Amino acid sequence: MIQPYHLTKQEKQEKLLKSLTELTDYHMENSAPYRAMIDKSGGFNQPSLLEDIPYLPVQLFKLMELKSVESEKVVKVLTSSGTTGQQVSKIYLDKETAAAQTKVLVDVMKPILGAKRMPMIILDTKSVLKDRRSFSARGAGILGFSTFGRKHFYALNDDMTIDWQGIEQFLAQHTGSKILLFGFTFMVWKYVYQEAVKSGQTFDFGDSVLIHGGGWKKLQDEAVSADTFKEELHRQLGIRRVHNYYGMVEQVGSIFVECSYGHLHTPSYADIMIRDPITFQPLPQGQQGLIQVMSELPKSYPGHSLLTEDLGTILGEDDCLCGWKGKYFSVSGRIPKAELRGCSDTFAFDRKGR
Amino acid sequence: MCKGVVKLNEQKLKLIFSEALEIDPEIINDELAYNSIAEWDSIAHMALVAEIDDQFDIMLDTDDVLDMSSFSKAKEILTKYDITFE
């Protein structure tokens, strides 16, 4: 059995129901705004089903400072990427939650990346990590995955141009070793792949594996599918293995990574649920709706159960051909803004109650 | 292994810590822990691991990178790679 993809539906339901109930109790005790919101929406009674665990809309972290630890205990603040002018989420981490995130990320990725660190090319700029106390989603992702790498090489210059010569040297130095590539989906496409096409660069990254995440929205606008992405990266750059992941700064660590069959999987630490965008009722397998993410990790902030703005579909549970247990699913994009505003009344809460 | 080398390894590791974390070697003792001082954060940790790899000519496993949560833990992990301390 491959950990952490080893629990069957029944086992996982029991484990998560217990831990998420405890977390809900914990956050109600330690975050007054969280308690006020839960109380206002009917309170929290010991649930018998995972779907009864209350959830917050993920956008709430952009509007409110939500944390369940004293400010002195915060060691790191994560922020969502957000374009200029947009409000960003703020996620407060204490030592314990930060350590749990790093540990679980390693656990979740190990079945794909193994225990040996690989020479690593980061398809991003080093300047992302300039501020050491506060990380963007990009910085958090890079740092988290850096654990799997050694001899880290940042392939993009500060002006987002790519250092082909540096890559060439790096590959020459590490001929014969498996190379780990990491980057954000859109940036890999725009600043690496498209640049390679433009300048006629063809490469052979050899025995390499690319891990990428951060969402498809911009690529969908350009009508690039997951299959095209993989095929093109193989053709142009010789990247043979590509694994996408679905994750967010509000739930770092327990991410959902693609198996060898291209399905996103829920590890034993986390689960998803699909909800109807209008009624918020849970939807069965095969139906598209809003993705709710649940994770055992968020302890320093009440982010253990969140309703995202992403649309997805559960493809199955415990029976993926890759052999991993748990739900597997696909993400099909983000809910259009208009619809979101339409149902945002549901999320209204009394801000005076803080 | 003779006592001299054992002592040297401790000094060598101290020097690596002080250079990678940019801290005074005086404050390095067995209890020095990850995230207990501002200088030893997740970014500095990567630099520290890279220096240890290079200077001792080893390749730490992913799990060991995570487990290296204090100076004494670092010594304990390094003994797995046949580097001896007192």
Automatic annotation (TrEMBL), chain A:
GO terms for molecular function: long-chain fatty acid--protein ligase activity. It holds the Pfam family LuxE. The keyword DNA damage does not apply. It comes from the Bacteria. It comes from Domibacillus enclensis. InterPro entries: ANL_N_sf, LuxE. Keywords: Ligase. This is Acyl-protein synthetase. Residues 4-347 form the Acyl-protein synthetase LuxE domain.
TrEMBL record, chain B:
It holds the Pfam family PP-binding. Residues 11-70 form the Carrier domain. InterPro entries: ACP-like_sf, PP-bd_ACP. This is Phosphopantetheine attachment site. It comes from Domibacillus enclensis.
